[in-house]
Amino acid sequence: MLTKGVLVVTRVLGGNKFINLSYFRKMSQCAATAKRALVFLAPGAEEMEFVVAADVLRRGGINVIIAGLPDGSLVKCSRDVNIQPDISVAEAKSKAMAASKEVGELLKEQEKAGRVIAAICAAPTALKAHGVAVGKNVTSYPAMKPEMEEGGKYNYQECNVVVDGNIITSRGPGTAFDFALKIVDKIVGKEKASEVAKAMLLSY
Ligand SMILES: [Zn+2]
């Protein structure tokens, strides 16, 4: 069962942050100017990866919505830090991203629409479980390499961050900043990513 990792699904749309998922999906079909990302948070996620991703994206001016699995209640992370999601992945029956029908549907919609999908650590296995990003260059936490390579669906690379079209994957806590900055770069632009990095005493 997959419980670790952070999945970021991004869309370009506007509106209020505190909305339910069906409204979020409906809004994604509207033309709007604001940048928005849906970040999935499942029990056992690594808080460093999750918080860095959400924080850096918000610094980058992206409207982040945190979607909890299996509902909107407090999510206990891998080192016992509890995080309160903004909304629930309401219809999800499973705690695991890889087994969540709702996560799968959102990922497939996202891919079909040509929008950005980002996954770090064990979360890339959720892409595989839902048949998303097939044929792409990807990476993951090293322990998940055999699982990602099995079946020959992906071209696995041992890089901190791998970008292939609209698919961004990364490896673990130590690569979380690179991962998040790459998402800001992809969605907002390199200039913004550099500006955000500089303010955090990082270089990009
Ligand atoms: Zn991790």
From TrEMBL:
Residues in DJ-1/PfpI domain copies: 35-185
Pfam families documented for this protein: DJ-1_PfpI
InterPro entries registered for this protein in UniProt: Class_I_gatase-like, DJ-1/PfpI, Prot/Nucl_acid_deglycase
Domain of life: Eukaryota
Alphabetized Gene3D superfamilies for the sequence: 3.40.50.880
Name of this chain's protein: DJ-1/PfpI domain-containing protein
Source organism (scientific name): Molorchus minor
